[in-house]
Design a protein that fits this description.
450 residues, mainly alpha, three-stranded antiparallel beta sheet, 6 strands, 5% strand
Length: 450
Amino acid sequence: MKVDLPESRLPSLYRDFRPLKDLNPDGYEANISTWRDFFLQQYISNSNRIIFTIGTRTLQELTHEVYGVPKSIDIAIDVLVNEGNLIPMELFNLGGMYTDNSRKGFWKWVRSWKESTNMYKSRKDETNSYLREDKFIIKANLEKEYQRFHELLKRSVFMEASSITDLVFTRNEFMTTESLQSFFSIYDEETKNVFLHFIENYKHIIVSKDNVIKVIAAEVEDITSRFSKGITENDLRIASVKVGIININKQITRLRKEINESNIKLRGPEFNELPKRIRIEYKQARLLSEKHLSRLLKFQNNLAQVRTQIDTSATNAVLIQTLSESNEVIKSINGYIGSTEKVEDLLDEIKEGHDRTEEVNDLLAHYNKGQDEEAEEEIERELEQLELDEKNNNKEENKNQDLHEPKESSSEDLLKRLNNLKINTNEGPVQDNENHDNEIRKIMMEEQPR
């Protein structure tokens, strides 16, 4: 394995630099930091691995052709553990992955777990194979993979589940579910166990027992709330039925494939060249496969019907429990309301209270009735006086208007009378003019004011 480390630092990095802690603290810290960054980059950050293993093999992989085995990488590993980047496998299995490393109780726990008086140490002795054979959980990678797993589980289970049978699996069925198979297929059996332990004991997504897994995530609370959160005998039976259905489906798939291959062979040109006895055997084998397929299809239908009945029974159980709880609610509310006599008494009291309120309103309405009548009479008198004053003002205006109207009338009458004057053309002009002038004078005299 090629070790990507600074060439100029290799002599210092590969020797036992523990004495530098007192002689050259800066060099000591620099070496630790370099090895720490190397492990983070090489084994932790740039991979999907969840388990990191140390031991003799690690030392062999890091052996340099000139400088040999690195003498002090245990210090960098201890730093990664103390920082929480690496979680010792045993501590992980004990549930200590998210324990606060800064608390004193944490390392007390680690000491009791390792039966040691010191913090965790990856060095076991002073030989060339000084590293413990130990395993760690890479915390950041495990959490990152969990986010990816949760999205897949959401699509394959959370959004599709409608009954308790959709949440119960055998271990193999769970890991080979259509959308989850691609996730688990890249990991070995040990990593699968680690991940299942993580989602059960840290994330509480599942519970498991006797190779049976039940999803109990908060996203399916509407289904699981009516049933036990643990694995029950009914869950084991449901898993058994589902295993039977899966196995039959596999056999049906295999038989269909065999029958298709047999049909192709029977229709091929080479088939007719075979001896008659062999051709008969081929046909009999196909008939046997078809009969077996027919029986398996019946079994498949029977098991499918059983699963449907289980779903129906589970739905009925939920319905009965819901009706029972609804009945208790109704009883509780009716008990709070009381008997019908109590309700009638309450209504009578309300009616009496209403009547009393109306009486009080009437009394308050007539309390100032006399004073109100006097005020109304005063207002009516004022209104009458206002109307009388308005009439007088109208009369005065009419009088003033009449004084001007006669002049206008007399002027108009004068114009009419002047227009009506007739001139007699049969008489002489002198006489006619004289009569006309006399008429004008007469009219003008009449129009003069008397």
